[in-house]
Amino acid sequence: MSDAQDRPVVSPRIDVQFDRPQRRYQAGDRVVVRYTIDECQGDRIHAVEQSMLWYTEGKGEEDLGVHMFRRVADPAMMPPRAAVGDFFAHLPRSPLSYEGLIVKVRWCVRVRVFFEGARDYVSEHVFEVGDVPPARVVHMRST
Amino acid sequence: MNASRTNPFSTRFTRPGRIAPLDGGGEEVDAAALLVRLAAVGGAAAIIGPHGSGKTTLLGHLADAIEATGVTVMRVRSRGRWGATNVLFALVRAGRAATVCVDSWECLGPVARNTLPIVARMLGCGLLVTMHLQSRLPVLARCRTTAALLERICMTLPGHDAWYGTVITPDDVEAAFARHRGDIRESLYELYDTFELRSRTVEMRRS
Amino acid sequence: MRLPRFFAKKRGHRRTGSREWGVVGDGLFHGILLAAGLFFGGLLISGVAAPEWRINHDYVESRCTILAKGLAKTAVQDPSGAVSTTWQPRLRVRYTAGGRVYEAWSQGTSAEATTDRTTALARLSRWILGSQTACWYDPTAPETVVLERGYNWWLWLLALLLPGALVVIGGSGLVRVLRAWGKSEERRAASAGLAEFLDPLMHPAPTAPGHPAVPNCDDLVNSPGTILRYRLPIESPESWTLVGFGLFAVLWNAVLLVLAVGAGLDLLGGKIDWWLFVLLVPFLGVGIGGVVLFMRNLFLATVVGPTQVEISDHPLRPGRRYDVLLAQGGAGTFRRLQMFLELEEQATFRQGTDTRTEQVVVWRSLVTDCRDAAPAPNARFESWSVMEIPPDAMHSFSSAHNAVRWRLVVRGTTDRCPDFTRVFPVVVFPAEVMPAPIAEQRRAQTEMAG
Lengths: 143, 207, 450
What we know:
Order of helices and strands of chain C: HEEEHEEHHHEEEHHEEEEEEEEH
Number of strands of chain C: 16
Structural class of chain A: mainly beta
Helix content of chain C: 25-40%
Radius of gyration of chain C: 33 Å
Oligomer: heterotrimer
CATH topology of the largest domain in chain C: Immunoglobulin-like
Number of strands of chain A: 10
CATH architecture of the largest domain in chain C: Sandwich
CATH class of chain A: Mainly Beta
Strand order of the largest sheet of chain C: 3-2-1-4-5
CATH architecture of chain A: Sandwich
Largest sheet of chain A: 6 strands, mixed
Shape of chain A: elongated
Largest interface: A-C, 39 and 40 residues
Strand content of chain C: 25-35%
Largest sheet of chain C: 5 strands, antiparallel
């Protein structure tokens, strides 16, 4: 029997399903997410964090705003006993998803699992809010 | 509405700490060898190089490597008029056998640059700094940049199999490097713009 | 004000170093500032302001006879060895206090002291021996008497301004440290109201209520228009630039004048301070440059005149139309006056010694285009337009390092001056959210049709 420390670290597989397969929402809509945690290689998970947030991407520092956050630590809700979980939230009026040139605003859900031994793994899944078309260049300047 | 399109040259993928530090030839830096050398020169040294050559990235990587050995590390950015005070407090707080890593050492005044290493030695504290030009501190590493390094960085960015050679070509990388005279940071900004404009043009043609 | 920090946040997700020690150091720094402000303020108030106040409020009035007059000489040696002498007029007077007759030398005021003996003698000469005049004595120490009262406002300003600034900066920082002690980042963010007041530079711009990440537009709707509902503020008022240049030119040239007069007097007295003469040359260059810059900006402001933009409603919403009024003052004819509605992205990134900010305009629409616009004398040129926000427009967005901003940009071309550009920020809110059942129904219909 091999020592657990000799085994290579394998990332778990976290499948996330949205209530809308196209993952397109409008401000004020309810977003329902169901996730499945699999392939934990026998490592015990002691907590799962569920979050819904927006973040910026582009040429600037990354900013983010957490809209919904929940930490689940009930052993009865941890895999392998309960490998499925779900959460939902109503989207705020803003910000909308935006495909800018140097500033992009993205919405996503994150499911982060915490293993015994201080290891953690996060799975991020982007969805769209609003119908704002992508931006295009008119004039650029930098300092 | 178009789906989200990730630009691999976004700062979230290219900022210090996200890319492993590479040498001028594009090979990963041997952190262990550098730490041995740091100990050999007495625990205080400088990483030098021009703008955008990866000094901050290397400093962060070495700080992580030092921490992994169990040594306490304090990280300080010496910007602004309180930079010297920040460094001094870090040295006092760090204590014996710890290491203080200071980014942008040249932001400190000449008095601070000459006296703080003495303070560090008196306190038995290590000191690792980044700066553009050589100073009294021994040089631990010289960051130099090459087009090969920039190309290697591009190969580490997400989804490079899909866009490298098509949206961004080796000629683009070389041209950006030459245009910005070896400044990797500015070259990556230019490649960001190139990627963004070209991928939008491709999408417009498809639609 | 950028606070001194022991440790900088490492780029990425972890913070190393002790937050508590950082907070302690922060508190210590601000505590020292506060203590210094209180100490020096106390010194100035007790040594200068308080005695002056007592003289004007507590001293009792009487009549005195001037018996003798003289000058009190005070010599002070500075660390370089130079001795400076001050002369203060003093009068020996006889007066009655509490039924008893006193003879004493009057206490001079700080305003009477001078380094010039001739000036001091001139001040003394207005007092006539044997004449009677009003005096005021200290009821707690009747031998202390003054012949003049009043306030030296400059000393009061000095007593309050400098130490006051130290007290405010130190006190606010200390209060912020104490409030934040032991609290998590989320809790501090939740109670950010007072903290934002104490140090607005440390926090991102406030957001509109009910609209996360959309900037607050209260500052844009607090100025009513003359014709339309709101008058928009200009982004960087040129008047402040003009005032700034003017202040700089006045202050710099005032100092230069004093130095030049001093150098000239020394020259007339046979003394030549070569260092002073050498320094005067570059100082003179800067002084002339300051005056030229000020005059140029004044000319531009006078010829171009103020630009005002009024709008029928604010904040703006996608899909709606708004009346816009462009009013331009000034002298002469504007070959072309254009107003654009623009959407600009801004991204800021800090790395190493650099802070890099980039802006890019991603959408632009012409709202007004006027040629040969000529304001009438004592009147302004006006142009009315209707502006539409695209129905699928991105709303205004603001976070710590990134922004998406809408603005009205006025560009003008004149014959006599360089082209000018003036920017008027506006805020676009997201389109109003329809009630959920209606929205769901419409979406279902759309998906079925698709």
